[in-house]
Amino acid sequence: MSKPCVNSCTEPLRFPRRPDDPPNRPGLSRINYRIGTYSDFRESMIRQLDATANLSAWTHRTADDPGIALLEGAAILGDILTFYQDLYANEAFLRTARWRDSVSDLVRLLGYRLSPGLGGRATFAFEVKGSKGVTVPKGFSVKANVEGLEKEAEFETDADFVAYPWLSRFNLFRPLQQPGVVNSTKEFYIDSPDQDLNPIVLKPDDKILIGTPQPPGNPNRLDDAEIVIIESVRQQHGTNIYKIKGALRRTGNSSAVAAFKLGRSFHHFGYNAPQTFVDTSKPVKSTTTYSGSTAETTTTPNESPLSFQRNLNAVTASSTSSRAQFASEFASSSGFGGGLGSMMLDFALIPTFGSSASIGLARPVTVVSPPIQADEIPLDAEVQDLPNGAIVLMQLGSSVAIRKIESIATGAMKWGQQSGTTSILKVDANLVFHSNKDADIRELVFYEVLTPRLTLKAALTPAPETSGSDLYFYGTDAEAQALTARSLIIAGAEPLSVVVQSVDPLTPLDRPRLRRARLDTIVNYASFPHDPPFLDVFGNLVGTTQGKTQAEAILGSGDNTQIFQTFKLPAPPLTYLLSVGTSPPETPELQIYVNNRLWSYAPTLFGRRGDEEIYVVREDIDNNSYVQFGDGQTGVRLPTGFENVSAVFRTGTGAFGALKEGTKVQGGKLEGLDRIQMPDVSSGGSEPEDGANAKAAAPARVQSLDRLVGLQDFEFEVAAISGVARARAAWQLRNNIPAVVITVLMDTGRSNESDAVREVIGHYNQCRGPNRYPVIVEQGTREYVRVDLDYAIDPSFREELVSQQIAFALGTNSGKKKGNNNPDGLFGAGHRTFGQAEYANTIVGIVQNVAGVKWAIVRVFNVLAPADDPATLSIDSSSAVFNESVAPGNGQILSLFSAHLTLTAVAEPVKGAC
């Protein structure tokens, strides 16, 4: 019977512990192999002191006693030794190993090798200057500071590429439609004459007369005529857009209107004559008595009213009569014609045009010189500066007749009591009106026309469609055709990659115009307006892969007497790229030359012939790469020679993410190169495979014997591909055909890499699978939840540290491409399966197991929505709903974004407090 515990020892003593005490049951993630810790060793030695008769009186047990200090030092040594014994014991088993090198050594015994780090792929936009294309050669070096990498990543172009200056950075625009001209139309553009060949300049405050040409095919008059004033001018796609003041008076809808820019204004001779006149041929005689004397005088002549109104039906006498004639035939014309310096006659009333009537202008007109003919028009001003052939426009109300000036003469005329010189315009044809209305010559006004006839159309407006695959490019036909089959990146909050399928040529002349480009993607037209701000579009996209090509290096000398001769590459890490058609899909960017002859890379020497000139590449735990050759049975031995083995290789891996803020892309020297942009993130780059993934994938690969037979074989093969977070395979009917459907969840930010996974697994099915059924790879999504949680915190713990541990235990998703996420947390991708539901009680249980938490209550537990970027999901009162459980869709996995977790710490009252 053991001696009772005295002094500072405690009961009961269980030392030394054995590895099976308590027993380590199967399936544990960690085994207990320590026989004791520091406290166990110290307590055991103290107990031995008590059990020793001559030392039992030694009661001072603190460290200031040299003997006790020596004893405690021995306990520390025992604690250290047993710690490493326990660590090594766990690292000796695949299930419990945590170190990557331990996992690597263990799985290598099964023939499984951890995947190396992959080089990223990035697309760069080259902006070049000048007027000609610039050829970017294959292997052109580009450097970029990518998020998540300590050093600058180096990329090289995949192939030769021609970059054009006009595609460096440009804009695309939504479709437009041509509206009609109505009374609400405020903006116009000149449709003809051609503004490229014969440009017309209009400025603010210019007066413009517009009207509808009639008849449409062969116009010789304008209806709905009115004068407008230019308010402002703006330019859109190389076309001047003119905005007018006020509103139009027209009531109809026309596809286009004719227009003339107005200059000086004149009046018909006699417009300012007095309203009455005196007929001196009939004087009035009267007798006047003054101071007794009577005299007869002629006084107060008979005043008659001067008529300015003339019936448009009136048939006038010949031009030799005392009444001035004003008649012009309204004949058809081939067009407006004419040039600068035209005149327009403005009437007050709207006539009906006929072929027989003429208009008399004034009864009491005396033609001094020369006589007025039927096709002549007298003006009250001298306009000899107008050229022959100019256009004269004669308007009655809202209708305008169009004529050409044949000649201008100077004469003298008298209207009532007013006389003076006048300019007499002879026009090319008579004008005959037919109407029951009268015209007032005082309202007849002539305007100088400063432009030829213009055809105006209403400014183009956006088409009613809200989305589609047609956008418009502004440029020449040659520039537009360079877009055909070209990849573009449309900048924005989320860059969009599209491919131009076709471009329509619109004009035979190679001049800038809007030309339709059909894309392979449907876009939202609201993002492509015709007025600033615009989205930048990059058209000189050059594909690159990460890796810097090193100078050819001598690896060593071959020795035909050695087997499996191995050489170390001088510079790590060797670049690997994901390659469809190989198994495993990682292929090194490496060329090995033996005696200046290129040898071939092989994934393994197993099963290869002894005469094959091949080599394999292996990595150690420090990412150093080694090239190994055969033994003459599996791969040929190296021939003997001095420094006859050389290598050309690329280095660099792990580029995955966006360009670091505040940094610029650097490139090599190239004539005409202006700058290089990185409009999208680099993708595909990854670090070497970690131990956690290998622990799950290696046993499955061994069981499958490198064959794809069962559904789990497909799942583990897909899970081993870089960037895949979760995979599930299932049999489904697709179009009544049995198919293996693999749902793949990519790591955060890698959703655009699912196409590469689809290609790799398709090749696997052909080469290593049954290849009897189609294999369909579908992309799974994360369905995000909202959790609001109250918890009571132990006052001795720091609240911010406890909150961090709660978020870690729940496996929150940071939403970053390279975030510090816990895949084994409750909502971590490594813990969940597609379609798996979750419960509020489980969340409470997980949180209450966090040190420092006394109790927890879930206040809000609700599902939000699937999203690739959880930051776009907002939480508000509508999502503040509590559910006992939530379940995602069949192809979805629940995830908890860190911003959607709300933690509220509650301090419990101190016991005994008032």
Key terms:
mainly beta; 9 helices; 36% strand
Structure description:
A hairpin with a 7-residue loop joins strand 41 (about 575-580) and strand 42. By secondary structure, the protein is mainly beta. The chain contains nine helices and 58 strands. The chain is elongated and about 185 Å long. Helix content is about 10%, strand content about 35%. Residues about 310-370 and about 430-435 have low confidence and may be disordered. The chain starts with about 35 loop residues before the first helix and ends in a 7-residue tail after the last strand. The strands form 15 sheets. Strands 8, 9, 10, 11, 12, 19, 22, 23, 24, 25, 26, 29 and 30 form a 13-stranded mixed β-sheet that branches. Strands 38, 39, 40, 43, 44, 45, 46 and 47 form an eight-stranded mixed β-sheet that branches. Strands 48-3-4-37-1-49 form a six-stranded antiparallel β-sheet, with no helix packed on it.
In short:
Helix content is 12%, strand content 36%.
The major pleated sheet works out as:
13 strands, mixed
Strand content: 35-45%
Distance between the termini: 51 Å
Oligomer: single chain
Please give the share of residues in helix.
10-25%
Shape: elongated
Radius of gyration: 48 Å
Q: How many structural units, i.e. domains?
A: 7
The helix/strand class is mainly beta
> What is the average per-residue confidence, as pLDDT, rounded to a whole number?
81
Number of E strands: 58
